[in-house]
Write a structure and sequence with these properties.
It comes from Trypanosoma congolense (strain IL3000). By secondary structure, this protein is mostly beta strands. It is built from no helices and 20 strands. The chain has one domain.
Length: about 160
């Protein structure tokens, strides 16, 4: 799938969207507004997504968003505003995210955000304003963070960030 792929507004209430198995999506992929209430969105299994991926506003109340298993996401990934109240966002397992990653405003009240398992995130890391009242912030498991990652305003009241 080359050039421009618009996957906007794919999934609605109760839908399951799977993008799986040896897919190469090049150039620009807009995945904004994919998942809504109760949706499960899985991006899994040997995927290479190159150039610019905008994943803003994917997950809303009650959604589960999984980005897992041997993924290489290069250039610019905007994951701003993914998780809201009650959401679970897993970014796990052998991921290499290079250049600039903006993870601003991911977690809000009651959210669980896990960034785990052998991750390499390169460029600048700004971790200001991560933890506030009652927050638990854990960044663990063989992580190398170099150069630019903006993780400001991740955790708020009652959040658990792993």
């Amino acid at each position: 799938m080359s050039d421009t792929v618009h996957i906007s507004d794919i999934a609605h209430i109760g839908d399951i969207v799977q993008m799986s198995d040896r897919r190469q999506v090049s150039d620009t992929v807009h995945m904004s507004d994919i998942a809504h209430i109760g949706d499960i969105v899985q991006m899994s299994d040997r995927r290479q997504v190159s150039d610019t991926v905008h994943m803003s506003d994917i997950a809303h109340i009650g959604d589960i968003v999984q980005m897992s298993d041997r993924r290489q996401v290069s250039d610019t990934v905007h994951i701003s505003d993914i998780a809201h109240i009650g959401d679970t966002v897993h970014m796990s397992e052998r991921r290499q995210m290079s250049d600039t990653v903006h993870i601003n405003d991911i977690a809000h009240i009651g959210d669980i955000v896990q960034m785990s398992d052998r991750r390499q995130v390169s460029d600048t890391v700004h971790m200001s304003d991560i933890a506030q009242m009652s927050d638990i912030v854990q960044m663990n498991d063989r992580r190398q963070l170099i150069d630019t990652v903006h993780m400001s305003d991740i955790a708020h009241i009652g959040d658990t960030v792993q």
